[in-house]
Amino acid sequence: MKRVRTVFKPEQLERLEQEFLKQQYMVGTERVDLAATLHLTETQVKVWFQNRRIKWRKQSMEQKAAKLSQFGVIQPASADSTDIKDHEEDTVDGKGLFATKNIRKGETVFVERPVVSSQFLWNALYNYRACDHCLRALESAEENAQRLLGNSSLVLPHPEQCGIRKDLHQQCPRCQVMYCSAECRQTAWEQYHRILCLGPSRDDPTHPLNKLQEAWRNMHYPPETSSIMLMARMVATVKQAKDKEAWIKTFSQFCSKTANEEEEIVHKLLGDKFKGQLELLRLLFSEALYDEHLSRWFTPEGFRSLFALVGTNGQGIGTSSLSQWVHACDALDLPMLQREELDAFIDQLYKDIEKESGEFLNCEGSGLYVLQSCCNHSCIPNAETSFPENNFLLHLTALEDIEAGEEICISYLDCCQRERSRHSRNKILRENYLFTCSCPKCLAQADDADVTSDEEEEGEGETDDAELEDEMTDV
Ligand SMILES: [Zn+2]
Ligand SMILES: [Zn+2]
Ligand SMILES: [Zn+2]
After folding, report:
1. To bridge 452 with a disulfide, which of 96, 142, 174, 424 should be the other Cys (CB 3.0-4.6 Å)?
2. Ligand nearest to the CA of 133
3. SUPFAM superfamilies, per this entry (predicted)?
4. Ligand 1 centre and the CA of 168: distance in Å?
5. Same-domain check for residues 149 and 286
6. Residues at Cβ < 5 Å from ligand 3 ion
């Protein structure tokens, strides 16, 4: 049966968009009222919201490029590894990490724990359940696959390869936030959660912290590249700390920018629509967390700096029980026939999941990493970051042999973006990280005409809602 496409009037669309900004789900009497106001049926409103959510998730996948960041001069306080040291560098972006001994392809250069991290608010709202401290996914691999597939009867083979230990999970006894272990609960409590624990006010929309989070969600849709809660955790960490200066020093290692650059970053993070609302966020932030020891973070300039710091240094974190299970399955020593069967099963599973959930698979958040944030960008990187332990521990792995003295570079672009023309690559780098790349690849291509690559031109047009409606209703 072919459905009739609804053609919305511009004023109806405008109002629907306004409502969507406020909330992604419209139900009950609110939906009845809105439909009546707009002279639409309730079903039309319902379907529009369904489609709008799909479109919004699609946008979030498309831009899911790993959020690696930095520029400015950074002084790592301590290197966890003796294999690397940092140099004062003349480059425009970061500061530079250099190998102090030969590193082989595939070798782990270092494993780093963030000084602070947080799951993205929308990600959490969408039932991507993760440890509130280390971001370890809390669902079993099977539950994870079931949710992403929308199929609660899926059974995964080799369940013993799933590393999720529900018996170790813990709640904050006051606010019921979940942790993967007693250690995470304890660490969070000692570092920042004493200040941020909502206790019985967890669901109270008038609590200052809830107001702050709500305001952030309304301004900052997926793809989230940063979270206001990362900033809240920084403040809470200092507030709770005995040695406040040590923490302030730790955070001050991350880049600082000129006022103009900070403006640009704020603009980029909040988008055109909301760039003027930084002041609102600042007021809510102050209401929730003001501390006289940190008064400069609450001034308009200080808050903008904090915002820019998190925006440019926040490294994206992605964790997944399913991918941990897949890695464990890959490592199994199986007879050939069983191996082929399992591989085919996994391939099909990913295809089916992609159909249902796109590439939006992980528990996502961001964190501040001292060493990683010293790594400069290259369009032909010799190292990459990953999160193979299903938590916030960042692994930097060599993509090729790196000789002693050579700079270790990661790419702030994903692999598709790296294939684009020099012009396209630098457009992205300038917009997101405010620098122009002078890596060997960019230098070699310096004489190429200033054209954007083909893929840049396509995909700009928005899919209209009518098309999406068919996609949706046919499911
Ligand atoms: Zn944890
Ligand atoms: Zn709590
Ligand atoms: Zn380059």
Report:
1. 424
2. 1
3. HIT/MYND zinc finger-like (SSF144232), Homeodomain-like (SSF46689), SET domain (SSF82199)
4. 10
5. yes
6. 379, 437, 439, 442
Distance 423 CA to ligand 3 centre (A): 10
Instruction: State how far the Cα of 124 lies from the Cα of 137, in Å rounded to an integer.
Output: 11
- Cα of 195 to ligand 2 centre, how many Å? 9
Residue 416's domain comprises 84-113+369-457
Cα of 20 from ligand 3 centre, angstroms: 38
Residues 6+ apart with CB under 8 A from 77: 249, 250, 253, 370
- Quote the tokens at residue 138: 């809390």
Mean pLDDT of the chain: 81
Parallel/antiparallel/unpaired status of strands 407-410 and 376-377: parallel
- Cα(132) to centroid(ligand 2), Å: 10
* % of residues, the chain, pLDDT over 90: 43
Place of tokens 């399992």: 342
Q: Which residue has the tokens 């809830």?
A: 210
With respect to residue 45, please indicate whether it lies within any of the assigned structural domains.
Answer: yes
Q: Which ligand is nearest to the CA of 444?
A: 3
362 CA distance to ligand 2 middle (Å)? 24
- 285 with 296, same domain: the answer is yes
pLDDT tens digits for 263-278?
A: 887 877 777 777 678 8
pTM of the model: 0.72
Cis peptide leading into residue 223 (ω within 30°)? yes
User: CATH no. for residue 105?
Assistant: 2.170.270.10
